[in-house]
Amino acid sequence: MNTSDIKSYMQTLGQQARAASRQVAKAETAAKNQALTAMASAIRRDESVLIAANAKDLDNARAKGLEASMIDRLTLSPKSVATMAEGLLQIAALADPVGEISGLNYRPSGIQVGKMRVPLGVIGIIYEARPNVTADAAGLCLKAGNAAILRGGSEAIHSNQAIAACVKEGLRLAGLPETAVQVIETTDRAAVGELITMKEFVDVIVPRGGKGLIERIANEARIPVIKHLDGVCHVYIDDQADFDKAIKIADHAKTQRYGTCNTMETLLIHANMASNILPPLSKIYFDKGVELRGDETACRIIPQMKAATESDWHEEYLGPVLSIRIVENLDQAIDHIARYGSQHTDAIVTENYTRARRFLREVDSSSVMVNTTTRFADGFEYGLGAEIGISTDKIHARGPVGLEGLTSQKFIVLGDGQLRN
Question: What is the value of pTM for the model shown?
Fold first, then answer.
């Protein structure tokens, strides 16, 4: 497809999405839920079809020498297919946010003023590797009354098109326009350039993927962007932490999955705990093949550890590498997170209520946790049904972006003939 053909193709998708958005915005909750349920049924029924399509993508990915973390995100299994379907059913079970009225109050003039929750319109979503995003994004955008244009990575083209067929079937069975969710069929990057500049058709862009992709979208888009660039997540083990609890959390936060944005990348340990907890923790990490990079104090305790450099504290490894720093107190831990963190997800392990409260209040991240793993920072785990992504922005949506993050509010005024003096 040449440049002019891509422009024409994208304009057509945009026009269809804008028209479909008006239909979806006024759709009854029952119709949207019917579509979501039918999508889930089609995905479960077509599990073998989806995995076969995914196998083609995996073969191509390995032939191209893609990194292990990318292949991990690309892989569909019977469990992940079932999770996709379950996510859609959870979205169907959630309350419909569209049309919700809040804060309706009488003014001295006699009018009532409140706010109504409304769809954003057309949402463009650009993502890499993860085929499950196709189902998650379709479901969330639909339930929030939006149309969606989805552009998955070229490495997942077969998987995404197979999932898109299930999505279209669900829309069709519910009597909703199939163009309410459109998955871009070309792998040409020029399509992305068109999508992020089609102001007349697209209301917001959500990029999901590596830092390079998100930086490009943020810099080049002429449309508002909901994004996060890095997932430099921290766990701080306080000197008043429960020892066994701290071991389990620090292990899980790093090793449960390496290639996710909510995986711990830096472990902070109070100096009073370091000599006791680092030896058993480092054994766990070494046994699992995790490379440790520590500050001077950490390296003295565990001589096999590599010395960390300044750049390590900024690094989102997305792999079996962990930075470790020993801090003197809670203030130093919070200062480290403020300097090096990405405002994604940070956790404290402590039995001290006052310190836990301080950590919650003072750490400026989209998710802040006490006595649990950073891996919980996820829309599915938060009860959102699924997520469109995690936002580290501070305006409009922050943290896992579910239904509410895909809507806005408008003022509504109810009167009975009142006139302004």
Answer: 0.84
